[in-house]
Amino acid sequence: MKKFVGIFSMLLVVFIVSGCNQRKDINKYVDVSFSGVDTKGVASYRIDTDAMAKEILNIDPEDDALSQEQTQEVSDLLNSYTIKLNKESNLSNGDKVTLAIDVNEDKTKKIKSSKKTVEVKGLNKAKELTNKEVEKKLVVNFNGVSGRGVATIDNVFDSPLDSVVFTIKNDGKLKNGDKAEIVLDKSQKDQLSYDGYVLQKNFSPTFEVNGLEEVAESASDIANIEDIKRMIDEEVRRTYKDSSPEYSYGSKYEITLDKLMYRQFDKDSSKEDEYSWSMSSSNQNGNLIGIYTIKRYSGGTESKLEDTKTAIIGYSNIVLDENKNANVAELDEIQTTKDDTYSLESVLKLYEGYGYTPVE
Q: Looking at CB atoms within 10 Å, which of 108, 114, 210, 340 has the fewest?
């Protein structure tokens, strides 16, 4: 009988010790919540680490009198696990989300790995943002030249949609007749979801591009190009007009047109040294220039070559009307020179680099 009682006592001790050393499931300290709108919901979790430390370790992490050993014990516990959700976004009411806790047993013997499944609830019914609404509530204007058109957008939605930033696909490369498509980046879509909106399926509001100035793709597309050529020739001969050529102190000019060149669009005006008396940076499209060799001789009977340079004279802002004619009264003049340290070949190469092509 005594032997039986002794065995029973030993079993009881083993049971008690085993029960004391049993690992805890910390799932009860993890709260999973859902936010956003139905179909676009977001899952997140929060863990009550204070309650976990108090109940499992019998230590209050907020206690200022903790020993170094107790502080380390709390730190080991809180760094012994990782938590993952199998799905965190694009959730709908009724979905099942699994939360998995993975414990590093080398760091603690107090808790165990576990999983729990939570049903998605409480997501708000989304309001749909449609193509029609966007097309009605955005005022879009197009500026610049066709092929390089830029859109400006005024948003007249009521709050909270008035803060949404809508943009145009291919903005800066628009041409007349295009269907400019409204797009939203990820941050704007996330904000819409937060505000309770989802986008219509195949969301793609569009606006027809119109009102952009037309610039000829090539010089041959300018109906009255001969008028502009004549203006360039008149300007170069006015600029380099003989002065008192009969006297030795005078000057005579020999003018040779080396190449006529055209550029549809400004390639990079910051790198170009063209000078215009009236040109603004916004009007550097539609340029027709003549590249001339200018030789200046002294006057009188014994005329001698005194200077050679290359002159670049022409016009920009050659904008076409519906008949492909340019209004010559609105052209901006281009005029600059290169001294004799530049060869003609180098000047031609330079302007090719600026985006010009020869006019045949």
A: 340
